């Protein structure tokens, strides 16, 4: 952050100082020992988006890969174990895309985009790319970001010339990332949703899918609202994934307004699966879950956010505990309820989302408890939107709309928070091909890129100080 802020300040003052005056610039800066920001760097080209990684006991071998020429990347969380070494693993999603003029239409400028894992090292105020791994199926065929034929989202994808792109057997919408000490990776996906295990070279070695390792009801996910977040417990034994929003169960009018989503745990060794209800803060405002990161064996930090830019945004982190929550998965044992292999736990013959309906969160929790289902316990951890707005009410400090990466190396005391830049895109131009793409512009006037914000929560609440810089121009 120090370097980034000084660079911003230098640009501002250089314009004024060209007038040949003695000027004094006052700027409010957060305490430098509480915050640090890293813009992610890809050579001399544009920025990648990334998130802090926790380092490894023994750093894995550099994975094989080819450096990418694509400028923007989506990244998600990566966990490892042991001493912190400023190691970062970044994960792309399905690639650059934007809403088209038609219903459920997506436009992509790069139909052949290959999802990738990048390894970075935080050096000074930059994240330096060290290697890239392209993700491939067991036969070595590279994945792409087109809709997967086995898990349709109902979307029509087109290139910028308007040509429809058929679903593929190699589609992957990668969202969550776990890096293990053996050099392998687990990736969560929004299409299936799937949990895919890759070796160090990026080749798929196994896959968990709804009805085959994961609860089958997860296939009822809302399009582009699949398994958004993924983490692993500190002992390395259990994968923990979270769905972005409620499932589209039969009889439900709007899954996005149901005050619950689901957390799924998978024992890596035994493959035992458990499932829990996570109550959303305010589903009427279209909040969704974008990340989960482990702070203990049963405790986690969960990221809930809207899609608005600062300063009028709602982005909060919640501390949760699975202890005492009712298992609603295949091993559920709720009196009077029945687990249906296709629809999940049924109460009064209805899937949970249908049973609750589009009610307020408190009413949904009450209804579940009366039926014998205890949701996950949660309490406020960090009001991120309030924090950054307090540091800069104009929204120019970390004013991103999509906060989708959270990691910690010390049980949640220090949080590394990253944004999803959407590859710097914000929609298309024109109703007819050839289509153009519009840039996503931040409150600071720049195109969105990726950034890490480190927050030492033990030093909160945040304070600012005023620094006077005197510049003499000769």
Automatic annotation (TrEMBL):
Domain (Phytase-like): residue spans on this chain: 135-423
Biased composition (Basic and acidic residues): 55-76
UniProt name for this protein: 3-phytase
Region (Disordered): 52-76, 92-111
Superkingdom of the organism of origin: Bacteria
PANTHER family with a match to the protein in the record: BLR7070 PROTEIN, PHYTASE-LIKE DOMAIN-CONTAINING PROTEIN
InterPro entries: Phytase-like_dom
Pfam families: Phytase-like (PF13449)
